[in-house]
Structure formats: C-alpha cells, structure tokens
Amino acid sequence: MEITKEIIDLSSEMISLGAVSTPKLNKQKIWELFGFIEGYLKDANLEVISFNINNGTIPALYCHQSSMPISNLPSLLLAGHYDIVAPQSNLQLTPRMDGDWLIGRGSADMLTVVATYILFMSTLAKFSKKYSVGLLLVGNEETGENDKWGTGHVIKAFQQIHGFNPEVMIVGERTGEGPRKYGKLELKNRGIIRCHVESQEVAFHTATAGKQSALDKIIKMQEEIRKFLKENKKKTGGWSQWNWETTFKPSYIIAGEKGNFNISCESASMGFEIRPIPEESEVDFISKIEKLSMELDLSLLVLNNEHGVRANAEHEKVAKIIGLMLSRTGQDLYQIVGPGKVHGTQARFAPNGCQPIVWGQSGISPHGPDEAHYIPSIEPYYNLLSEIVNLYEII
Fold it and tell me: Which domains does the chain have, with CATH numbers?
C-alpha cells in the first residue's frame, strides 16, 4: 500500500498542475509539469536526456539508469505522456479520492501510469543491477504529436545519433475499463489519419438546380469515404469481431451562416479522422482521399498519417510477458489479451522491428467530466512491471 500511496500522491500533484495541451495549449503549465518530472528523475540519480531546444516546443524527456552507458540504449522502452485535455470544470484539477477511485482530469489518461513509471524508474536507479530499460515521456500526445518533440521525433533523433532500436515498447495507456484489477495486454493498435479539407465555390441562389455548393462537396466527401471503407472491409474479409475495424469520424464541419437560407455558402471545411487497423493499409486510404479531393476540387491537408501496429505474440519477449501475466493474475489468455486498442497511442511510432504493446491500469471516462482511475489496479501493475524488467537484466 505504501507504493500505491506514493503513486497517488505523485499523480495528484501532476493533475493539479493542469498541463493542458488541447484544445488550447497552456504552455506555462506544460513547462511547469515537465520541469517537475525532469527534476524528480534527476534527483533520483537517473540519466535524463531532455528534448527542449527552446520554449517554442513542447518538451519531452528520456531516462535510464545513470550507470548504463548511452551506447547501451534500452531493449525495453516504457512510453507515456504527461499532457492532458482541457477539463470540463476546473474542479477536475483538484484531485480527490472517493473509495477505490482517484478522481481528476488526467487521472486515467494517463498521469497515474506516468506516476507509476516515474516511481518505478526512480527505484531502478537504486539497484546495483543493470537493466536495459528506458522511459520516454512526451507532452504533445493529445494534440497528435505532429510537432517536436513527439514520440516519433524523439525516436528518430535517437536512431540517427545512437542507432536506437528497442526490442519491445510498452505504452502505458489505460487498458482496463471500470473496476478491473488488471489492464489487458493490447497487442494491436490503430493508427491515425487526420485530415483537413476545404471547399471554395461561387455563391448562388439555393433554388438553382444542378449546382454543387461548397457544403455539398464536403458532404459528398464524407459519403465517399464511408463507401470506400465499407468496400475495403468486404474486400479484406472484414475484421468486425469485438468491433475491431477501421473507423471514420468527422471532427468538425464549418459552413454557411445561421439563418441565411436563400444563398449557398461560398466556403466549407471539414476535419476528420480515420483510425486504420493494422490489417488494412493506410497508404491505400491516403491515396483514395487524395483522389477524392482532386475529383471534388477540394484542398487537402494531411495532418497525421500513421499506420496501425501489432506485436507478434510468438516473439520471445512478448510470449514471456504474456506468460508472466497468465501465471501472476490467475486469468486465462482471453482475459489478459485484449482484442485491440481502438484509440491511437504512442505505439504507432514504434520503430521497425520493435514489438509494440499497449498495457496500462484501469479507469473510466478519459476526457470526460467524471474521469477517474481505479486505485486497486496500481500496485498489481507495478509488481508485474518489476517482474517484466527482470527479462532485461544485463548480465
């Protein structure tokens, strides 16, 4: 219980800082929380590498045992993010406990797991044994990680300088829904295609037949995307078990003027997301979106284009992690291995050859007004993590 208390205290402190990255960036709070985490890890005598060229970027950091040379970068990479989405109420930035729940913005997504990782790495720093384990934390996950320093940028920088090539990457996003003691291992993770399209047309009287307005073209774009996703699903045989399928959702549509009924809108725009499963090709999706945009005379901006990823359950280390979960939890394979993580996570940036696993603790309503973390899932996760890292002890 002492470990649980330390993690709750640490998570609560981070929640209260309110490091919001979206929809409106609070750069001051982002940097305050980054500084707090950086200082905590350095005080624990960990080797910390910070990615914060200037105040114009959102900072990230990486750490491992200080006694391990930088040339021996980790075989196991733990990954998480310390930024949060804006709360529905500022009361969410005052964390509180209610029975088995820690309530507050970011408690479930994902500051409690980040607190677990920070405490865990600080404990590793005290050991004389050496472990090929590192931790990467970013502050722009909720915004899509397009700008420096997102997970992909940090990994690419490490690859160029040090030949960074982790064997397994564990992303600590919530994988337990509700009051579950153990979060599931998710070996499959969707990617993200995020686009903005715009249409410009000369206005005309809405009684005119045969003409397409800017809004008509945006609506047509939606219809065609849904159509080709449906056709693609049939062509690939379908992956609808447990709702594991590629999804499409518009995030916003901006068009027209309220109350103006007799003139077509001259401009319209739409932002949308496609979440591709790894069984389907995001390259094909992008190609079709580009073709549609040209046919409809729309301007297209692709903001994210990251494929879905999957880990090989027969990989030596992945199989051993699954085996540890089976033996320690008393659950069967279907209880510990999930059908796939439907939200896009940092796992999509895993380098080629790396086995990406999404595995976290339990909670409810991430991004919602009643977001909460299930406290009894904290210590079992910490203990299992302690056993997993033994697979990466340097002899």
Answer: 2-189+308-394 (3.40.630.10), 192-306 (3.30.70.360)
Residues 51, 61 contacting (CB under 8 angstroms): yes
Q: How many CA atoms lie within 13 A of 175 on its CB side?
A: 26
**Cβ within 8 Å of residue 177, ≥6 positions away:** 362, 363, 364
Share of the chain above pLDDT 70, in %: 96
- The DSSP line for 290-354 is HHHHHHTT-EEEEEEEE--EE--TTSHHHHHHHHHHHHHH---HHHHB-S-B-S--GGGGPPTT-
Q: Report in angstroms the alpha-carbon separations of 134 from 168, 252, 372, 389.
A: 11, 38, 27, 10
Render pLDDT for 139-190 as a digit per residue (tens, 0 to 9): 999 999 988 899 999 999 988 888 888 999 999 999 999 999 999 999 999 9
Give SS3 for 192.
Answer: strand
What pLDDT score was predicted for residue 76?
A: 96
pLDDT attached to residue 98: 97
DSSP readout, 221-270? HHHHHHHHHHHHHHHTT---GGG-S-EEEEEEEEES-TT--SB--SEEEE
DSSP for residue 144: T
Alpha carbon separation from 98 to 3, 335, 361, 373, 375 (Å, rounded)? 19, 27, 17, 10, 10
Is-cis flag, bond preceding 239, omega within 30?
A: no
pTM: 0.92
Cβ-based neighbour number of residue 257 at 10 Å: 9
Instruction: Yes or no: say if 69 and 54 are a contact pair by the CB < 8 Å rule.
Output: no
**Which residues, including other chains, have CB under 8 Å from residue 318's CB and lie 6 or more apart?**
168, 187, 311, 312, 355, 357
Indicate the pLDDT class of residue 237, thresholds 50, 70 and 90.
low
pLDDT tier at 291 (50, 70, 90 boundaries)?
Answer: very high
Q: Is the separation of the CB atoms in 250 and 272 below 8 Å?
A: yes
Per-state percent for the chain, helix, strand, coil, to nearest 5: 35, 25, 40
Is the CA virtual torsion 170, 171, 176, 179 positive or negative?
positive
Q: Give the pLDDT confidence of 326-382 residue by residue, as tens digits.
A: 999 999 999 999 999 988 899 999 999 999 999 999 999 999 999 999 999 999 999
